[in-house]
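Supplementary Methods S3. Input chains for the assembly prediction are listed below.
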Amino acid sequence: MATLTTATDLAPGSTPRRGPARRRSNRRGLMRWIAVHSIALAIGLMFVLPLVFVALTAFMSDRQALTADLWPRSWHPANFAEVFRTAPLLKYLGNSMMYSLLATAGMLLSSVPAAYALARMRWRGRQTVFLVVIAAMMIPPQVLSVPLYILWARLHLTGTLWPLILPYFLLDAFSIFLLRQFFLTVPQSYLDAARVDGCGDLRTLLRVLLPMTRPGIAAISLFCFMYTWNDYFGPLLYAGENPDEWTLSLALASFRGAHQVQWNLTMAATVVVMLPVILLFVLAQKSFVRGITFTGVKG
Amino acid sequence: MTAAPHTTHVAGSSFTRWIRPRPGHWIRPLAFMAPALAGLALFVVYPLLALVYYSFTRYDLLNTPVWVGLRNYVFLLWGDPLARKAAYNTVWLVVVITVLRLVFATGVAAVLVRVRNGAGLFRTLIYLPALAPPVAATLAFTFLFNPGTGPVNTVLSWFGVSGPLWFSDPAWAKPALTLLTLWASGELIIIIMAGMLDVPGELYEAASLDGAGSVRRFWHITLPAIAPVLVFGVINSIILGLQYFTQAVVAASVASGSADIAGSRRVIGYPDNSTLTFPVWLYQQGFHYYNMGYASAMSIALFVVSTVFTVFFVHRLRRASHAEEMA
Amino acid sequence: MRRIGVAAACAAFALLASACGPETSSSGTANAPSADEKVSLSVWSKFSGRELGVLQKVLDGFQAKHPNITVKNQGSQDDDKVAQAIRGGNPPDVAISFSTDNIGQFCSGGAWQDLKAYISRDKVDLNQLPAATRAYTEFKGTRCAMPLLADVYGLYYNKAMFAKAGLSGPPKTMSELFEYAKKLTVLNPDGSIKVAGFVPTIGFYANHVQMWASSWGAQWAGQDGKSALGTDPQWQAMLEWAKKFTDFYGRDKLAKFTAGLGQEYSPDHAFEKGQIAMAMDGEFRTAFIEAEAPKLDYATAPFPVADNKPDLYGGGYTTGTIIGIPKGAKNAGAGWELVKYLSTDPGALQELAHGLKNVPSTVPALQDPTLQKDVHFKTFLDIFANPNLATNPASANGGAYLKSAEDFSISYQSGGVTDLKAGLAKTGTQIDADAQLGS
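Predicted structure tokens for the full assembly:
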């Protein structure tokens, strides 16, 4: 519970006052303020300047992008149109969307009941199953790639994104794990009350637990969406052979090959691929931060 | 979460339910768990068993697997210098990334928790790179660090420093990948910040009344208090390092100037196999050379190593959940 | 919601059970479709852009002869993707590979079908293929591919730059190549490279060990079939030369230069842009230059040879584009018709040879007067006819040995190896050990 409230505490200005005798010396306080904020500013720049250079290069002319100049001499927004012209980005965008949205939907369908059973039902073997889920979560994706690839090849589903999407409808260990932790934060008394009112497990889950853990659901959905959106290994393995099924990440990786010296176009494509994720973050910043802190402190 | 939806509360109802199970009470949990159990069987247990089997065979996915006994393991341990090189690269990344990521993230978090104006903005700035798809972030970095005209070497040249070749130099490729990983470690920074903000302010007040300076306060109060979060960071970084794939593959492909799709056999590990991580070599063996049997043996090795850390993680988690139940 | 999961799991299990076990490969032949049977054929190749268009034109000719067959021409598909598709059971009907590096893997593993039965059924005369091309399209008696044009490598040099440097003819030995490159290199005021006489970096453009090896007379395997990397002294000579060449420029300076050069198959190719004065390249470059840099004043010649092997001059490295039918192709019968058409029909070969500027892979087509007339191109026809024409041997594990050799060479060239002789011997042993893994 504590962690959930912590996340909102991260809002500006709510940092708890600490340190000695702030009132004693206003001047020392001011110096401190300047010192802390200038270091923070330097750190912030360090993180954001690379992105700025990328964006600036995306607007340069072909020729200038090959020079050491940092600022565009003339602006070429047409580079972005060129990117869309040379590569079927909309198709890749569609594939990425299909992968991410279906996987997220499948994850919710399969993880919610499983997390409920692991968090709120008592049955023999629960601890064991939970440990297996955690173990599954920790297996590096490359470990199982050989037997799974063989499996999907026999089902004639390689060359498509289905081998990546379908498993989400059964199992996403990380989401089950995280969702279970979220479900555990709801006090037992609420569930007992629901039961007294005659709710079965399904109704308790849908009417009580889900509404109370909406932020958690939002967080795991975002994680799942982001993970699949950013995934490179999976699409490379299963869809690499079939350009009709490429996702944005996969297409971006081969984009540079086709446009060797045109750093401006490559960077424009990079911006195009980054933008949706950044927009998503801006729209759902709170859920992100809450989810992240929750993994860290509870996980 | 302000008011309880139901005010009636019968004490002990949960107890009676658990102590005296209704007949067939296991059917419900099973129904709830069915997809996940099927998933575990199909996508975890079956592939693990199959992996063990394949690791004793020669299999190219075209002809039937042929039993070869321990040959793949013998080759992995004694016959394949690239597997050794790949293991070295992965261990290098695991160690360096884990240490630097924790130091760096703790340092940045320690500054940012003191920020009182615009904290939200700073948090967004440091988190943006972590959001970027790894392929995009790696492309951005190979551009920034490109040896000829990249902004980084340009800026270095202002100070009279002749920048290294970064992703094109076997000695600098892994450090460059490390910088990329640090740049994208906003998630860990935010977690550590949250941990720091959880430390009760009174502790600091008390310590400073005792005359402790800020360094000692950080060392004796902050660090112990955020230790659990740091442990999480260590495990998280180790797992990250063990799986290191995308950035290595994309950086190698771009720096080599190859026209092939990233991950093609010619460019893997460029330059001079310095970015050949264990998962990359596993992928190459399995899905370019179609030595599925050998790739399975490599997978088993990776699995064994990652399991050691899993056990550690589970152990810690169980301790935490015990503490929770006690409270 | 759980019903969906269970249903999916059941379906998956059912499919799995029914799809288990290897597919039987057909040893016989599939008949060509009858004239009224509508068939769709997919063809995968690594061609792209202009070259894909040339192929399309030839495919149009095939379609005119077989109106019932629709051909889907898919470009940018390299060997890796074809191999994946074969494993996944969705292969194209016809596959075109740009190199013969993987022929051993294709034939011995059964990834590409044995064409022998088709060839004897249709009485295709294999004697119309030159000996070298006939050899590199089969492996240990299994003919799983037909040649589709050959690539021959030689030297391209910029005549204008040669004139400015006071050089007349092309270099004929490796030492001459080095000396010429020194004279042709131009530096910027800040010391960085403006024009490189020759870029000696292994892995850059067409600089691959197998292509250089033929000009050095370096052997891949000895009498016993084991790797000759450690025993043939030519390997050592070749790499020492390459290292000396790199050190002349300075490794870092050279790397910074090449990092800014255009991609091999783009209009920004450094030779076409006048950024390098000499380069090793295939005959197809003449077509690229004609299309992308028609004003370039250049000439072609056989690639220089090792100083101690002057009699090799005139020969060179050859490899070829090959065409075959993948295992599991849906329309193998119609696929064979296309393979036969592309690899033996004089009209088709001529159009491809002209359009792609590749060396034709049948004896009659080599006599083509149009190709013989092109002075740039004639060089390559002569190299192709030279007895010292060489290629690299096929191996059951494909091009894995090439990667080992090239990795080592690059490592030595960039200063990462102290004992060259021991390193070569170790790499040779490794190549032999790797070959054991897949067999």
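Confidence is low (pLDDT under 50) at residues 1-21 of chain B. Residues 292-326 of chain B form the longest helix (35 residues).
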